[in-house]
User: Fold this.
Amino acid sequence: MDQVANDGSDRPLLLIADADSHKRAALGHAMRCAGFRVQPAADLATCMEVLERTRPDLVLVDAGLSDHGGAELGRRLRSVTDAASTPIIMLMGHKDLDAIGEARAVGTIDFLDRATHPSLVEHRVRTTIESCASLLSLDGSELAPPSDAAHPVADRRVLERVIAQVMGFDERVAVLCITAVDEGSAALSSDDVQRALDRFSEESPMESPLGMVRVVPTSPDHVTIVVSGIARLQDVGRLAACVRDTASVPACEGSGAGPRAIAVGVSTAPDDADAPARLVDNALAAMRTAALQQEGCVRFHDEALNRWSVARLNLEQDLRAAIANDELVVHYQPKVDIDSLRVVGMEALVRWEHRQLGTIAPDQFIPLAEETGLIIPIGQWVLETACAQTRRWQDAGFAPVRMGVNLSPVQFRQPDLLEVVERTLVETGVEPRWLELELTEGMLMQEVTSTMDCLRGLGDLGVQLSIDDFGTGYSSLSYLKRFPIDTLKIDRSFVRDVTENSDDAAIVTSIILMAHGLKLNVIAEGVETQSQLEFLRVLRCNEIQGYLISAPVPAEKARELLDRPD
Assistant:
């Protein structure tokens, strides 16, 4: 039962909003033990009642509180004048990641996984309260994103103090100094900064939300953004690019304001420095160098990192345009029956034919696509292209074959995955049984309940499901029994030395025997020699795929490998 601690009024007060009574009570107990006062709330109405009679030092809200969760609470919280600056931390899971942009727009300053240990939640809550309280005490005013010219300018000591506070989170800290290059151009406004943050959230991978963000106007000409919790350096570069690109364009068309050149200088801790003063100096120096290029650009303090970041950002920009520029193509690699060697399936594999750089290998751009979220539109394009191709082959009189399409973890977590697959099948006229979606073991072990629901939904559509690269992950018989899988694909790393390495031979034998015991189809990947083929035949592997039969080839060459019905 929820209880409110009324004693110790000098201790920080937390408003914990969660519709789940067990989680609410457990977290409340942990926070009380850590020295906080706690006010629980099970719904938005109760939250607002609390805000009418008291002002909490921080709101800890679960994203599942309502349809719009923390975002809706944030909007209501900001409507209460006395609580407008109260910090909000949102607890969320993978299903809630789409709400990050909306929640941030109404002032949510941090996001934690629901599974975070209470001691870590307590640490984050405490440091957030201390940081916000300190910022509010600076010159008697709050340092928020700069409003326009009338917003007060903070001095160097204030900026260093903000950085020191943010560095207390023991995470990577990025300092971005930003200025307009053109003489006479207005400094960045709060709208500019917010649009850049929103764009970053929209374009970034779901696993890489921003941590705490502080925006400090450090002169009439430029502002500084201090960010904690960016795990990867490439995301620091992406945030800087979002600031540059978004702030370069006026928020309102027809306003009379033309485009402006924005220069962004970046330094990071612990990569560049571990002291606030040095971080500021490094970011300012990088900003001045960027400003000299006139067009405006992003520049890191570290030259090697700068070259790497520029190359990566350019490649990402090119990848965003690859579909529109018809640079992506799909090649097809056949899967054949091990006895007759007749083609019974094809695997669709995307290739990038860059206009300047030539062919870019999948292992170079697929990870980038996954990190940036571009794998969603690219994956959907591959699915549509592959299904349309198999329909064309059938219409030309060739015997139907299963078309295998790989799903990335990001795609698999799409809330509308079932709708996307079903719509594609309907639009291309392909019967579901001729589509095989290939997943990895790791994907299946994430959020098992929702994974099971998704797999059952795909199975109900009639789509075939296979586990790609089997043997490199969990390889657990228990999960194979639970999931509605049709096919196992033995990873090529085991097939490569199967005739020479007794351990690989034993692994392949065990996988085939296990799969047959579960009445699953088995495909061996990476078959390149006749001796490998003969070994797999002895074990009664069902199908093979590899260069012994064919490399991945364009559609017109793949067509030559197909059989017409007898």
About this structure: Residues 3-7, 134-151, 251-256 have pLDDT under 50 and may be disordered. The first strand starts at residue 13 and ends at 17.
